[in-house]
Amino acid sequence: MNPAQHESRHAAITVGADNQPIPRETQLAAYNAAFIELGLRFRWDAAMYEWLCGIECEKGRVARYIEEHHPHLLAAYDAAFLSGLIFEKKNEYLRAVGHLN
């Protein structure tokens, strides 16, 4: 696990540039912005994000979502590849809004 992150089974906490937790609403917005930028036709709501936060690894949580809700994408892309792209775009959003360096 990245030392800048602490996640538990019930609550994922991502720490930002100021060593303060990044609000869940901001993280959710970052994921949804990444989906839009990558042309993916899905969007997470607060309930889905909360459920996915039970998965310790951020990239693992994205891969699990794709495997369960959009398995057709796996015919063309590897889940790890897609989750890596989404993770990078999410972090670009967080940097743009000043939460990550």
Description:
The protein has 101 residues and is mostly helical. The chain has one domain (5-96): DNA polymerase, domain 1 (Orthogonal Bundle). Helices cover 50% and strands 6% of the residues. The protein has 4 helices and 2 strands. It has helices spanning 24-37, 46-52, 58-69, 79-96; strands spanning 5-7, 12-14. A two-stranded antiparallel sheet has the order 1-2. A hairpin with a 4-residue loop joins strand 1 and strand 2 (12-14). Helix 1 crosses helix 4 and helix 3 crosses helix 4 (79-96). The longest helix is centred in the C-terminal third of the chain and has 18 residues, at 79-96. Mean pLDDT is 87; it is low at 1-11.
